[in-house]
């Protein structure tokens, strides 16, 4: 598609920029369009989908990952995109703190 110079000169075109969700952390924009694949998880989804004041959209990559299948990686595939998104965004990759773990017992002494 080619846009005429007059269309652009009239101010009908606005440039947009792409960046990673982590790079955009803390940034606020009018609209956010996020691309998610099988690596999508809860914390990243929240970071990416809380950037836009007016609109936030999540676009999911669909289909089988043939490259991964060829090298023997495990590939699970859910045909329903909504189900895939819900499952991915329910998965957390947060790290626990040592103070949140169970107490350690050494020779009968609790620490």
Descriptive terms for the model:
111 residues; alpha+beta; two-stranded parallel ribbon; two-stranded antiparallel ribbon; 4 strands; 24% helix
So how many helices?
A: 4
Which residue ranges are poorly predicted, with pLDDT under 50 across at least 5 consecutive positions?
none
State the order of secondary-structure elements, H for helix, E for strand: HEHEHHEE
Rg for CA atoms: 21 Å
Secondary-structure class: alpha+beta
The gross shape turns out to be: elongated
Order of neighbouring strands in the sheet with most strands: 1-2
Measured between the Cα atoms of the first and last residue, the distance is 67 Å
- Tell me roughly what share of residues is in helical segments: 10-25%
The residue-averaged pLDDT reads 77
The description of the largest β-sheet is: 2 strands, parallel
Strand content: 15-25%
E-strand count: 4
Could you explain the architecture of this structure?
With 111 residues, this protein is an alpha+beta fold. The chain has a domain at 33-92. The protein is built from 4 helices and 4 strands, in the order H-E-H-E-H-H-E-E. The strands form 2 sheets. The protein has a two-stranded parallel sheet. It has a two-stranded antiparallel sheet with strand order 3-4. Helix 2 (42-48) links the parallel strand 1 and strand 2.
């Amino acid at each position: 598609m080619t846009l005429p110079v007059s269309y652009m000169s009239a101010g009908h075109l606005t440039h947009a920029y792409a960046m990673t969700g982590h790079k955009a952390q803390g940034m606020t924009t009018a609209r956010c369009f996020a691309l998610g694949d099988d690596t999508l998880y809860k914390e990243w989804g929240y970071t990416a989908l809380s950037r836009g004041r007016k609109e936030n959209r999540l676009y999911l990559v669909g289909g089988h990952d043939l490259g991964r299948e060829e090298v023997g990686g495990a590939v699970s595939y859910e045909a329903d995109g909504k189900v895939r998104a819900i499952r991915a965004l329910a998965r957390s990759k947060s790290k626990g703190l040592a103070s949140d773990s169970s107490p350690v017992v050494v020779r009968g002494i609790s620490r």
